Amino acid sequence: MKILSIFGTRPEAIKMAPVLKSLALEAEIESLVCTTGQHRSMLRQVLDVFELQTDFDLDLMVSNQTLNGLSSRLFTALDPLIEQVKPDRVLVHGDTTTAMVGAVAAFHRGIPVAHVEAGLRTGNLKQPWPEEMNRRVVDVVSDLLFAPTEGSKQNLCRENLAGKVYITGNTVIDALMVSSTRISLDDALRAGLDAQFPFLQSGRKILLVTGHRRENFGPGFQNICTALAELSARSDIDIVYPVHLNPNVQQPVSTALSHLPNVHLIAPLDYLSFVRLMQRAHVILTDSGGVQEEAPSLGKPVLVMRDVTERPEAVLAGTVELVGTDVERIVTAVHRLYDDEAAWRSFAQHHNPYGDGYASQRIVAALLNRTVSEFTAQPEISHQVAVDGQEDPVVI
Ligand code: UD1
Ligand code: UDP
User: What GO molecular function annotations does the UniProt record carry, in alphabetical order (predicted)?
Assistant: First the structure.
């Protein structure tokens, strides 16, 4: 079976890495990898950390790209590639423009599509934008739907989609477990990663921030920056913000925050370095989908700067709170987690509902038509949450 995996951004690469590793172990599968280069350096960072080889690199990114410009470059480049490779199946991940165009381009050529991370929904086409549209389109054209949770399976069932649905868990937990265990067991590696953050002071607790959503561009990012500036008045925290390379994020963030001494604006981190910072963080403030899934399994409280989420499981479990982009809501929620130990503990103690580290194996089994044991029980992850929240190894 010839499988062509198509992806192009940082989160897709992180979440596809464990799948590609599992595919490579199967003698019956010829696994080919096409990176579109929707992201350039942020994709390279992931390929390097996971030592992933690519067969086709389309290198399509342009600075400050538009959705239609990127989509048209993707269709133009992917169609002849799919014609040339003639895969038995195309595999895409999640909800990016690369995933949507990759799936539709395969569909147009009559190639079956499998969707990893199927069934996530907010029910609102404007949030996240354009991802809610992308993921719906990918699900419509896919005949194999790998839903991370029971809830995502239910979303697919409600839409009467014709594809076959498997509950697999989310592959991001596979990637996280391997990486966080590697960091926790290797003192030299950990020391090397920590050496990248010489500006962190031992008496201060880390507030780790990421943000990049298109629907937050403009007023949303202004509010986020105002809230961070206000929070920087606290002398007991270090705010660490690896800033996404999108110019619509870089510009307002650096204008508003670069002069504040305990706000550390840094370049996007490679995955191991970012996992290490998550391990060390006291609280995480983010609008990222992947971080919402990862942080709870490290026992970290997450405040999500969005009004709705397609990942409601951790909100229901009490490890994630939606705070939107309102300045007061963000500031109040962060202060509470720093000042109220009981509130912090109640967030930090919960388990992770997104996976058990075996999602990729289930996906490969399903691709090969083998029996797939469904992900139904609570994942077998135990947390060791230290009192200061600084050292939290994930124990598999
Ligand atoms: C994309 C995805 C989003 C995902 C996010 C992960 C779409 C529509 N959006 O959003 O779902 O959550 O990736 O980060 O698919 N850039 C660089 N170097 C890089 C990467 C980006 O310079 O390595 C800059 C470029 O100017 C690029 C811009 O960021 O044009 C935007 O990249 P793009 O992939 O279009 O959108 P994201 O906001 O990153
Ligand atoms: N991440 C990373 N380096 C960073 C910030 C995030 O490796 O500097 C990882 C993070 O652990 C998660 C993924 O990137 O796995 C999330 O990517 P992003 O927030 O860009 O996209 P989203 O998940 O929102 O689609």
Answer: UDP-N-acetylglucosamine 2-epimerase activity
Active site residue 236: no
- The atom of ligand 1 lying closest to the CA of 246 is 29
Give tens-digit pLDDT for 235-272: 999 999 999 999 999 999 999 999 999 999 999 999 99
Residue type, position 24, single letter? A
79, pLDDT greater than 60: yes
CATH number of 2-170+355-395: 3.40.50.2000
For the chain, the domains span 2-170+355-395, 187-347
Q: Which of 14, 209, 210 to mutate to test the pocket of ligand 2 (most atoms within 8 A of CB)?
A: 210
Tokens of 357: 């580290």
> Which residues lie closer than 8 Å to 255 by C-beta, 6 or more apart?
none
Q: Which of 117, 139, 270, 356 is catalytic?
A: 117
CATH of 187-347, one of 3.40.50.2000, 3.30.56.10, 3.40.50.360, 3.40.50.720: 3.40.50.2000
Residue 70 CA, closest ligand 1 atom number: 35
Mean pLDDT of the chain: 93
Equal CATH topology for 2-170+355-395 and 187-347: yes
Q: Which of 40, 109, 214, 336 is catalytic?
A: 214
Counted residue by residue, the chain has a size of 396
Atom in ligand 1 nearest the alpha carbon of residue 214: 38
Give residue 349 CA to ligand 2 midpoint distance, Å. Answer: 23
Catalytic residue list contains 57: no
* DSSP string over 112-174: -EEEET-----S-TTTTTTHHHHHHHHHHH-SEEEESSHHHHHHHHHTT-SSEEEE---HHHH
The 10 Å Cβ neighbour count of residue 331 is 18
Rounded to the nearest whole angstrom, what is the distance from the C-alpha of residue 322 to the centroid of ligand 2? Answer: 18
**pLDDT tens profile 348-391:** 876 778 999 999 999 999 999 888 776 643 443 333 222 223 33
| Residue ID of nearest Cα to ligand 1 atom 29 | 246
- Which residue has better confidence, 41 or 394? 41
